[in-house]
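Appendix B. Chain record.
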Amino acid sequence: MASEAEIERLYQLFVANGGGNLTFSNTNLTPKQYSEAINASQLTPLEMAQLESKQHQFNRQSALNTIADEIDANNFNNPYSARGVHGTSLLNTLGAHQGSINAGLINGAFSGFTDSNRALVVAGVLSATGVDLEKIIKIAALTGLGTSMYTSLTDHTNNQTANIPKTMEDASSLSSMNEQFGEEGDPCSFFNQLMGILAGIYDGTLDFIEKAIGDITSFLNKSGITQLFLDIINAINGAVGGVATAVAAITGLLVGAVLEIMKALSPLIGKVINAINDVTTAIASEINALANMAADLLKKALALLIGSFGSDECKKKVLENTGSPEMKDAIEKLNHPLGTGNPHIVGTSVDSRANAEDVLRAFNSAKENALIDDGVPQSPYTHHGQSYTAHDSSLHDTTTTSDYWTRKVVSAQYYSTYGQSVYTDWMPKQLAYTRDSGILISQMQRALSNANFTTEAQLKSKDRLRDLIREQHTQGQNIATLRTRFKHEFTYTTRNPNWQDKIDDANERAIASRYQSIIKPAMTRIYNAAVSSLNNTKTEWNSIDSQLY
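Structure tokens predicted for this chain:
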């Protein structure tokens, strides 16, 4: 019986050969069949290796011939042509919906308001209900924005696919050159600046747009929504320019089920508009980059050529005699030997990514902090302060005498579930904070897992989300341990053998006083800092969320 290692070797051999495509017949064999075919072949290991080499060669030749035939026939399809037709159809359906038409008419109802009063009405309704009227009005504009984007998308990708081999060759050459001219960017970043859309990096965004347009249409089909827009128009017309009257009238309409629908609808519209703008911007950037591609190719190809001349002793002299001072300096940098000479004669240039003043300022700040930090925690309420001890086991006698009647007691100020105590003061706040922070962290983590991060701004937002999640985890831990980190302040000893029935009143009064004057303010500062961080994170998350799809 073959060992497990031998079975694994045979399977890996099976995988390496295209999943069992052993012969020229293109018949796929199972691992068992493949092994049996090899054993039955009566070929030596050398002959089998030669056969497999021929197989690989044949496969490559066959593939190259197929590619040549496909190029000759120009068998390249533009998947975004059909996508453009589908997306435009969805938008036209939305634009023809009476709900979309009525949403657009809300804009005209504000004709009797000044711009500032209109803004006050929108802000008042948003504050009272969470519904953004400006987003609702823009439903009617989605068809125009979206169809224009899909038209540009189709035209742009049609131009690219008209001669895919040549376009890819030029884009690949330029992206390779760009990698030599700069340190930034991953291997695909430069290429995606030229052909990222055809590479599919915006497919997730387009998926979102198409789904969201369908969702918006479904929202408009909900009972009462189309009529609600007419009622809002009538409410605005009836307010006769009065801000408070208009806010009250519109708020009175946004109740019950229609309110929940509108609260879900308005942010969705904003995200669709942002997504359309992102794709439109990407198309314009690619068109501009492709338009400049020929000039950039020539410029950078000549730069690489001249750079190679600079390493030739004969050709370099021409450049030194005819070139500008900047050219001569560049040639010197190219020819400067590495690993030889004294450091002071090594050719260098200023790194633009670092600011000398910022570096010196950071060093000076570190030195100043080191001078004032004596290494001992300054506050007894910090985690390190609680764990710090001035006694060292090697220097101090750690043995203590114990009294049989001595008992440790946790003050009623700490654990009491009635009246004023640490438990009653802080447990409800801890639970509420943990709930709210947990919901926020879940939302941000879900976005990290599911959202489409494509643009540069979105990629920065992705990094920022990770920072926000880490910050909330830290603050959550601070709140979770808010009571326990101060528990030692409520512990004292008593010699009363019946300590369970009779505690030390003097210690209890002292602890109660210390709690109100020192401990509670310290706990309040920790709690307020966490709440402030949570509120700031919510604000920043809402801003980031509006950009994600």
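Further analysis of this model is presented in Appendix C.
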